[in-house]
Amino acid sequence: MDETNQVQNSVKPDLPNATATLVLGIISIVSLCCCQLVGLVLGIIGLVMGNKAVELYRQSPGVYSESSYKNANAGKICSIIGLAIAALSVLLTLIFWSAYWAFIKTFLESYGYSF
């Protein structure tokens, strides 16, 4: 009976928002298939939450479980990847559309339309 109480008392709590950070990081990568801005926003939120969780673990590593630290760290990495890909995608989309409209403007001006 005493061993059971010791095992239950030795279980460390998870870091707050460690799992949420991991979920946001994964969703930020997956959402890039349909909407880059959603991936960008979720990547930023996941990165902020991951930084807070990792900092909390580093302040007192003995209090929280190591598995939740690994989840927070993995979520932070996924958020960085999602954020980088989303930022690149948004940048390339803006470049594409600005080049497209510059081409359309030049094409229409060659036929006498002015803007």
* Beta-strand content bin: under 5%
Number of strands: 0
Distance between the termini: 84 Å
Whole-number count of domains? 1
Residue ranges: pLDDT <50 for 5 or more in a row? 1-7
Q: Shape, please? A: rod-shaped
SSE series: HHHH
Largest sheet: none
Helical content stands at over 70%
Number of helices: 4
Mean pLDDT: 89
Please describe what this structure looks like.
- The chain has one domain (16-110).
- Helices cover 79% and strands 0% of the residues.
- The chain has four helices and no strands.
- Helix 2 packs antiparallel against helix 3 (36-59) and helix 3 packs antiparallel against helix 4.
- The chain is rod-shaped and about 80 Å long.
